[in-house]
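pipeline: protein-struct stage 2 | run 1193 | Acidic leucine-rich nuclear phosphoprotein 32 family member A
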Amino acid sequence: MEKRVVLELRGRNPSQVKELNLDNCRSTNIVGLTDEYTNLEILSLNNAGLTSLKGFPTLPKLWKLELSDNRISNGLNFLHGCKKLTHLNLSGNKIKDLETLKPLEEFENLKNLDLFNNEVTNIEDYRTKVFALHPSLKYLDGFDKEDREAEDSDAYSDGPEENGNNDSEEDDVDIDFGPLVIDDDSLSQRPQDTKPSLLMSLYTVYGLLFHMGYLIKKSEDEVEEEEDEDLSLSEVYNENLEEESSASPLYEAEGYLDEEYDLDDEEGDEENDANGEHNPKSQDVENASGNPQESTRGKKRKHEDDDEN
């Protein structure tokens, strides 16, 4: 148990600890807990193997103690240093008689006591006798005197119940709620100029409505501006799309077809020249080369040379 206590401290000072869980730590008696835990409010020692409460420290602010599923049969008087105790769970222990419970009489604030699964519960009129032995009890084994089951908020609350002796007096904060109470007489005695008039109230309501209308109008204008912006963006997008389309390969393909058409025409002209159709250029070329026929001047000069011979 001592090692478990050191582990749960996590380097803190014992006086700073308000809740400590030592369940299943396995120890027959209390070891490692000291009176230094002056601010400890909740302590859990369930299923720890305890057979005795000897050496239980003085814990002035402890209000909830869990000791279920141990082997405690007596020695509840060692809890005398926990005067603020309101919740005590002793279920699953070895308590056999009412005499063992007598030390609990000094706990004037004890409201919830659990003795379930103890032999003492087999005593005749057990519940009536325990309630008589501890008049401060409100719930025994989770039920009140009329056998009505306790609600979680009552039987297992997260703090001490209001009993006039609330602990931690130095931590209590006194709050005066007097100024918050509305007194009709004091309201009627207020000076006339400090009372809210009907006209002022109407002005206030009108101002709120005007402000709400302004906000709604502003939001509608913003929506319209966004729609106009979307339209203008779509127009720009369409223009860009048309420009890209005009420069696309489709138009280049059309120009290419026109060039092919011109080339075909030129090839047709060449074929006509080859077939002997009238082509002045081709005739001039042939005459200039002098291959097909000689000129008339050449024939006359040749005839004169023959006559001289």
